[in-house]
UniProtKB/TrEMBL annotation:
Protein name per Swiss-Prot or TrEMBL: DJ-1/PfpI domain-containing protein
Family: Belongs to the peptidase C56 family.
PANTHER family named in the record: DJ-1 PROTEIN, DJ-1 PROTEIN HOMOLOG F
Pfam families: DJ-1_PfpI
Residues of the DJ-1/PfpI domain: 7-201, 224-401
Organism: Brassica campestris (Field mustard)
């Protein structure tokens, strides 16, 4: 995989931070050995911060995938919690290569916190990378570092405040569809982005800015197809999907009976105190990128089945089962996360294979002839890669990228 990083990134957190903009970069960086410290003012290691999903679910935010009519306001759904792994009062900016500030309403509160504003200003003074997303550019304005016409982008409601602070508003040109929203902007050491739709490109820019080089041992970059349905687990589709985009791969998502641009509802499982099982909560929408009839197995090197409840839907669909079997027959890579093993078990892909499994798929794996490695978060057996749970996504991204010949070297 290349040398693991001796890099450190600080993530500034707070209540109602945007879930995608927190979890995707966190797990992606951890996959390649970058140490990420998550802190929040007034909180200590082990404390939790509520995360929220911001999505365009109606209201005045009228959006069509084929043409953006209006992009005005988003809805906010509480999804789950992030456990902090470091103490805010112990942060020494000199010890980090970058700071990430996700979007979310917490930035409004933190922009009035003198210690937070001073910390951001100190990162700027030291010439460290600062990544802001959606609304967190408010902290740049509060710290007085947007002056002299620095190019900056954000959610469009931030435009007047960026300009009033002396910044130069940047907006991606030529956007006609939701899939066109891909770019961030970097000016000096400052990376800014509209929000989570751009995470694939943004993570690539971040990796390169802290000194990484992405290489591939194959003649062509790998291509991956994600097989999903409604109630797919949010992070187990979005983390690897955006991660492999960042690594320069062709990445698509397909669902039986859906066309390009159709939505798949996603869910998040949040383990609340005192419960045996996690609570299922609605999260972002995920948009299918290719129509079922346009998929050719020969166009992809790997198929990935994310977790959630969608594998239970897919296992009852002959087209979905048949697609997995075609990938296996052609000697392609096959991968699954969490409940994704449910579908692989039904196709025969797990027979005589070593796998990782959460409690939800252990019986399915065993009766399908698979061997569960109980102590492993993620297992690679020839061209099969499996992860036990969503929390094992960093290990999964690392293992699958290695299997596909991708390296991140610092």
């Amino acid at each position: 995989m290349g040398s693991m990083a001796q890099k450190s990134v600080l993530m500034l957190c707070g209540e109602f931070m945007e879930a995608y903009e927190t979890i995707v970069p966190l797990y992606f960086l951890q996959a390649f050995g970058v140490s990420v410290h998550c802190v929040s003012p007034g909180r200590k290691t082990g404390d939790k911060c509520v995360m929220a999903a911001h999505d365009l679910l109606g209201l005045e935010a009228l959006i069509e995938v084929t043409f953006i009519v209006s992009l005005k306001i988003y809805s906010e759904l509480v999804v789950d919690h992030l456990t902090l792994n470091a103490n805010f009062h112990e942060v020494i900016p000199e010890q980090y290569d970058a700071i990430i500030i996700p979007g979310g309403r917490f930035t409004e509160l933190l922009s009035t916190d003198e210690k937070c504003v001073s910390m951001v200003a100190r990162f700027a003074e030291l010439g460290k990378i600062i990544l802001t997303s959606c609304h967190s550019q408010l902290l740049l304005a509060a710290a007085g570092i947007l002056g002299r016409g620095m190019k900056c982008t954000a959610f469009e409601s931030m435009k007047p405040f960026i300009e009033l602070s002396g910044g130069s508003w940047w907006q991606q040109p030529g956007v006609q569809t939701l899939f066109d929203i891909t770019d961030c902007v970097m000016d000096g050491k400052f990376i800014s982005t509209l929000g989570w739709p751009t995470l694939g490109n943004t993570l690539r820019v971040l990796l390169e800015s802290i000194g990484s080089k992405i290489t591939c041992s194959k003649e062509t970059q790998p291509s991956l197809l994600f097989l999903i349905g409604d109630c797919v687990e949010d992070y187990s589709i979005n983390v690897p999907f955006k991660a492999f985009q960042a690594l320069g791969c062709k990445v698509d998502a397909v669902s039986p009976n859906k066309k390009k641009g159709d939505k798949c509802a996603t869910i998040v499982h949040d383990l609340e105190e005192g419960r045996q099982l996690p609570t299922e909560k609605s999260s972002h929408n995920f948009y299918v990128t290719v129509a079922w009839e346009d998929v050719s197995v020969d166009d992809y090197d790997c198929i990935v089945v994310p977790g959630g409840r969608s594998p239970e839907l897919l296992v009852m669909n002959d087209k979905a089962v048949g697609l997995i079997k075609k990938f296996v027959e052609k000697g392609k890579f096959v991968a699954a996360i969490g409940m994704g093993n449910w579908l692989l078990a039904a196709t025969g892909a797990l027979k005589k294979k070593r796998c990782a499994s959460g409690y939800g798929t252990k019986v399915a794996v065993k009766v399908a002839g698979g061997q569960i490695l109980e102590s492993e978060q993620c297992v690679t057996d020839d061209k099969l890669v499996t992860a036990a749970t969503t929390s094992d996504l960093p290990a999964f991204v690392h293992a699958l990228s290695t299997a596909l010949g991708l390296s991140v070297v610092f």
